[in-house]
Design a protein that fits this description.
30% strand, 5-stranded mixed sheet, alpha/beta
Amino acid sequence: MKTSVETGGKPLKFVELYTDGACSGNPGPGGWCAILRYNGFEKILSGGETETTNNRMELLAVIYGLEALKEPCRVRICSDSQYVINALSEGWIEGWRRRGWRRKDGELKNPELWERLWEALQRHEPTYVWIRGHEDDETNNRCDAIAVSERERMG
């Protein structure tokens, strides 16, 4: 948690970060999207890779969204990826970090991305919300559509 000294005495801004990733084949072409919302404004970030996995795209969406923030913030991270949300909210990421980016039973996939995500989180006060994908959340659906569009552009 950031202190008032670390933030120059100002209260932290509250930002919502919606993320999604898409992949055709696993591995295959993939895309990601992050939508940042602050005080009535939106910023959309997206990209993709020609040979990737769904989990990499989900992770990159969160990473790029957090890295786009220019100052420490209170960030509500909203994603339909149970893997990412559980890793963050259930403390799995702390255990992986303590073990040198390894799982209890061995290899952790994408350790460089988990480490990068850990570093990006350290500036902020995050909370985590899992959203059921492809249902009633308009922003999640927009994220999905943009991630799919990026995936198609990569394929």
